[in-house]
Amino acid sequence: MTPDICIVNFYSTSGRLGLHQDRDEREESLQKGLPVVSFSIGDSAEFLYGDQRDVEKAENVLLESGDVLIFGGDSRHVYHGVSSIISNSAPEELVQDLEVSSGDLVL
Prior knowledge:
It holds the Pfam family 2OG-FeII_Oxy_2. By secondary structure, the protein is an alpha+beta fold.
């Protein structure tokens, strides 16, 4: 049995991720309808999502450090992406504990 896919996206302060659907998992995982789970750590990000691959029609939500987003059920194949990163928005405690500058801390 092969493990399911786990993807970690690291964004720089100028990072982005175009609208896309997550469909690269094993066929078995897709058939089971296993959800996509996203954890946000570090700087905040402008997150886009929608039924179409069209940035103009996509909804926008701010994801902050500590936010968890789950795509499951009918929303499993929603188009989603990151339009921008908000530099220096990571929680100060996180920046101090990791001893990095906030602009370097975007996952």
